[in-house]
Design a protein that fits this description.
The complex is a heterodimer of chains A (about 260) and B (about 220). Chain A has ten helices and no strands. By secondary structure, chain A is mostly helical. Chain A folds into two domains: about 1-60; about 65-260, no CATH class. Chain A is globular, with a radius of gyration of 22 Å. The relative contact order of chain A is 0.13. In chain B, about 30% of the residues lie in helices and about 25% in strands. Classes of the chains: A mainly alpha (about 260), B alpha/beta (about 220). The interface of A and B includes residues 251, 252, 254 and 255 of A.
């Protein structure tokens, strides 16, 4: 089998031409979002064009440090995005969460490239960046759910939490039930995806491998590997994200540090 | 003369732009039962929460058994205190689970045998043994307060901090609580309430604002 088919200029014009259908449907129903659709399409095109050009350079260079820097930039962007979604202060939580994301992404990523794909050069750009992005994207989603649940629940249960501290619990003991619940909620979407994968739609990596010209059975092996890597990444990033932010998230005497929350 | 257990000196706390405690000072002797009275919103709960380390005062010091209370020392000093809140939020689960939970914490594991005192304390607090299997969310306000007191007493701590513990109690239940408190030997009690009926057996009653003014002079 050959590699993925390239799409020529007429093909891309046809792809944009397909937009006529949703635009016509929106106009027909009088949905007033035509401007937003236009902005979204332009943004998508420009962003992907820039990333594509940059990745082309990175892939051509395939320099170890450049690849690592790119993954670290992706992690930094995810870090800021999680904290904004969770309404937690970047100054307080940025570094500890960054460390948690690095661990959560690096462990399954290096395992995947070195032991599953058995690549001699495990920091190769064409594996490191897309697979790292898939793992990181899921860590981001899980950390948003986990961190938000953890800090919001303790904020809401402040009296019960303080009662636990008053009974002599250490910070780890007092936060443990909240961490357990946040962890469970955070990995639930990944587990649900694993339960229904292949039945509802073909997952992204499997689709990519098939489009790349590989047989479906090869694509399945990739998909199983990446799903386990994603689950591993979320299972590391969520508890690490919570545990590493405890010092900034709580006052030295135990109560929640509300100054670290954006209200 | 009894040794001073709790020493509060010139405590100042401002919250939401309002001065809640203003140069408040107090000494509580070991074994003393002290009641601090003040109207609602005057800073009674704030005072107890400062002692527990949940609020960091703007100024002033708190010493327990001679040790200054701060972010590092409070973790050890809390093992000398038990606290009953005005409206206890007890979480989920059954009463039995609530009472057993503190003994899973490292600090209390050695006192697990105190759980054997549950039946007698239930009786003294006019609570039925059947309550142990009840869900916490199904308890009335008065039951919650007595269960919270029971949980505090099981910890066997030398300093008991009580925040308006009879606020939700009827006369009979309140009498049962007072009877239990009167029978505590060697336990120091710092209670806060609206008026003297909050702790009828108090050795001393201090009006919160009087303690502030006395210090200001």
């Amino acid at each position: 089998m050959s590699g993925a088919l390239d799409i020529g200029l007429p093909g891309m014009i046809a792809a944009y031409g397909l937009l006529v259908v949703p635009l016509a449907m929106l106009l027909w129903q009088g949905v007033p979002i035509l401007g937003r659709v236009g902005v979204a399409v332009v943004r998508m095109t420009v962003q992907l064009l820039l990333v594509g050009l940059y990745l082309q350079v990175v892939f051509n260079q395939d320099h170890l440090w450049l690849n690592c820097v790119w993954v670290l930039v992706m992690i930094a962007v995810a870090d800021i995005s999680i904290l904004r979604h969770c309404r937690l202060r970047i100054r307080a939580f940025g570094l500890p969460l960054f460390v948690a994301l690095v661990i959560g992404t690096a462990v399954p990523l290096l395992f995947f490239t070195a032991l599953i794909l058995k690549r001699p050069q495990m920091l190769e750009a064409r594996f490191l960046i897309p697979i790292g992005g898939m793992i990181l994207g899921n860590c981001l989603r899980a950390d948003i759910i986990g961190l938000r649940h953890f800090y919001e629940t303790i904020d809401r249960d402040a009296k019960a939490f303080e009662h636990t501290l008053a009974q002599g619990a250490t910070l780890r003991e007092a936060t443990q039930p909240y961490l357990r619940e946040a962890f469970q909620n955070a990995v639930a979407p990944t587990l649900a995806t694993m339960m229904t994968i292949g039945l509802v739609s073909l997952p992204g990596m499997m689709t990519g491998v098939i489009l790349g010209g590989q047989p479906p059975l090869t694509a399945i092996k990739y998909q199983v590997g990446i799903m386990i890597a994603i689950f591993t990444g979320t299972a590391i990033a969520v508890p690490c994200g919570i545990l590493l932010t405890l010092k900034k998230g709580f006052l030295p005497s135990g109560p929640l540090n509300r100054d670290a929350l954006v209200r | 003369m009894r040794e001073c257990m709790l020493h509060i000196s010139s405590l100042e706390v401002a919250m939401g732009g309002k001065q809640v405690l203003n140069r408040f000072s107090l000494e509580v002797a070991a074994g003393e039962r002290l009641l601090v009275t003040a109207p609602s919103g005057a800073g009674k709960s704030t005072l107890l929460r400062c002692v527990l380390g949940f609020i960091t005062p703007d100024r002033g010091t708190i010493r327990l058994n001679g040790h200054a209370l701060d972010g590092a020392s409070i973790w050890g000093l809390r093992h000398h205190m038990a606290y009953v809140a005005q409206e206890p939020v007890l979480g989920n689960g059954t009463v039995q689970e609530l009472l057993e939970r503190p003994f899973t914490y490292h600090a209390n594991r050695e006192r697990r045998e105190n759980l054997a005192r549950i039946p007698s304390l239930l009786e003294q607090l006019a609570l039925s043994p059947d309550i142990l299997g009840q869900e916490l969310r199904s308890l009335s306000g008065g039951e919650k307060q007595r269960i919270a007191l029971l949980a505090a007493l099981l910890l066997d701590r030398p300093l008991l901090l009580l925040d308006e513990i009879i606020a939700s109690l009827d006369r009979t239940s309140a009498d049962a609580v007072f009877s239990v408190l009167a029978g505590l030997a060697g336990v120091t009690v710092l209670a806060v309430g609206h008026h003297e009926t909050a702790l009828p057996h108090a050795d001393r009653i201090v009006a919160l604002h009087a303690a502030e003014m006395e210090d200001a002079r």
